[in-house]
Amino acid sequence: MTSLNDEPAGRIRSIGEFFALARAMELDAATRYKETSRQLRAQGETALAAVFDGLAETELGHIRQVDQWQDHEGDGASARLPWSIPDTFDASPEEMAGTKLLTPYQALASAVRHEQRAFAFWTYVAAHAEAADVKDAAERMALEELEHVSLLRSERRKAFHAGRLAGQPAGEEAVTLAGLAAIERRVAELIESDAPSVPDIEMRSALGAAARDASAKLDELHAVEPAEFSVPALPDERTSDISACAEYLAEAYLRLAERTQNPRVLGVIQDLAKVAIFRLGILRAEDPADLA
Question: What 3-state class would DSSP assign to 172?
Fold first, then answer.
């Protein structure tokens, strides 16, 4: 079960504060999902936007449930939030919409983790509540979040199988250094053949040369470190997307730098990671979709 990013900032002192916090958390989730959808749709990612639209509608349904519960309890008076709502998300809407590696499965997996953190939050609140009605309400909310986890996990499984049928990786894939070398060569080809991706001729030439140099270093290192390692997957439909390939390589280098035990490999990979992050920044600055 995913744990909280941070412990709650304090205790809930009344049932009014409980309802204020519960509603604010559900509204924050709906707002985040809607904003992610808006940004994805602006980039032409309509299929992914639809996933986040569905998540937003689910959260709006949760808000209606909280409102009905509050009305049933006869506590219609609004109370102020006792403190700022907790952060239960993996990333901001800008970060979610900004990645070129996102798939429906990963979007739903992130939503599952959000609901798991919400469950952990309400469990913590219940355990530390002084008022009996707040404790009971927090326990009920925790159980409802657990039901949300179950429903989203079911949707995640559907997305996993649909992705496999479409040849789309679920979230992680095994790769070797030789495999990364091949993608560096692909990036060099894409940069050199697609002038609009980097309008500056000198920068385009420099990035292409750097990618080919990285490819040669990776091929050489493969003889030292032939093992596979796990990295965020590159969807098949993104293999001709320069920004997606560049993001994939940056993520792969950072992941490998955390895990390798070989000092020689670590030194080279850290250098490649710096170049990859710089390259990704250049490509994103030139990508109209990232400026929308």
Answer: strand
Residue labelled with tokens 């170049």: 275
Token reading at 143: 């159980």
Question: How far apart (Å, rounded) are the C-alpha atoms in residues 83 and 120?
Answer: 17
Per-residue model confidence as pLDDT tens digits over 204-248: 899 999 999 999 999 999 988 888 888 878 877 788 889 889 989
At 65, which amino acid appears?
Q
Number of H helices, E strands in the chain: 9, 2
User: Over the stretch 43-57, which tens digit does the pLDDT of each residue have?
Assistant: 788 888 999 999 999
**pLDDT tens readout for residues 134-157:** 999 999 999 999 889 888 888 888
Residues 40, 52: Cα–Cα separation, whole Å: 9
Domains in the chain (CATH in brackets) are 15-165 (1.20.1260.10), 172-291 (no CATH)
Nearest to 275 by CA among 214, 215, 195: 214
Tokens (6 digits) for 59: 């959260």
Residue 263 CB neighbour total at 10 angstroms: 8
Residue 226 tokens, joined: 């032939």
- Name the amino acid, one letter, at 46: T
Does the model's pTM come out above 0.90? no
